[in-house]
Amino acid sequence: MDSRRRVGAVEPDAEDEADGELSRAAETAYRGIRTRILSGELPGGAFLIEEELASLIGVSRTPIRESLKRLSTEGLVVLKRYRRGRVVEISGRDVEEIYELRMLMEPVAAGRAAKRISDADLDKLDRNIDQMATLIPGWNEPKIGAFIELNADFHMTIIEAAGLPRLRNIVKPLIDMPTMLAADRPLLATSPDFIQAACDQHRQIVIALRTRHKRWSSTQMQAHLLASSTRGMSRT
Question: How far apart are the first and last CA of the chain?
């Protein structure tokens, strides 16, 4: 009787440990695949074969499968039949649509955030800009993924501060979409001038947010997105 109790007490711990290892492996797989997509190492249209990704990242196929489902919900991966996936292909028209939608929603969020954002989040935004600026010296294409992550974090911090969960759920996939990797457009972020402009515009947004001025904050976000969309829609 006592023996059965002891065995029963061990089994949940073993299951919890196995679940924890699987969760960590799934996070490792997710980060590994996402980073390679954002950097362009896995370009739009590339097939995602579970066996190959598992070998590349050093995990089993199960966490690879889970990470592909997660990336599919974020709009970065299109899942096909027979467990095959492809990296989403972004066109110039997609870029235009994404920015049109963002310009409708993010200025509203910035205006609302001006009245609600905490000093801690404002300081976080300043640190984000400083980190982005460190990417400029020696800029090269492998840094694109880091830029996209920092840029998304900046915008999502403001979205979260707005306190509009429905808007957050709509805008997040648009912000996460790496628009500078559009197949029929140049890699816009390969220019240090692009990164510097983003830093400067982000600083103006933070200045406006610190004043708690709703209209100014909204206008600065609108100006930033308009400038970014103009670059995103231009061709060489």
Answer: 78
What is the value of pTM for the model shown? 0.80
Among all chains, which residue has been given the structure tokens 């889970």?
66
DSSP state of 121: H
Q: Find out whether 34 and 48 touch, Cβ atoms under 8 Å.
A: no
Q: Which helix (H) or strand (E) holds 43?
A: none
Task: Write the burial class of residue 166 (CB in 10 Å: 0-12 exposed, 13-18 middle, 19+ buried).
Answer: exposed
Give the homologous superfamily in CATH for domain 92-233: GntR ligand-binding domain-like (1.20.120.530)
- Concatenating the DSSP letter of every residue in 138-200 gives T--GGGHHHHHHHHHHHHHHHHHHHT-HHHHHHHHHHHHS-GGG-TTS--GGGSHHHHHHHHH
Rounded distance between C-alpha atoms, residue 119 and residue 88, angstroms: 37
pLDDT for 64-108, tens place per residue?
999 999 999 888 899 977 667 899 888 888 888 999 999 999 999
Q: Could you tell me the two tokens for 143? A: 């840094």
Residues 2-87, CATH architecture:
Orthogonal Bundle (1.10)
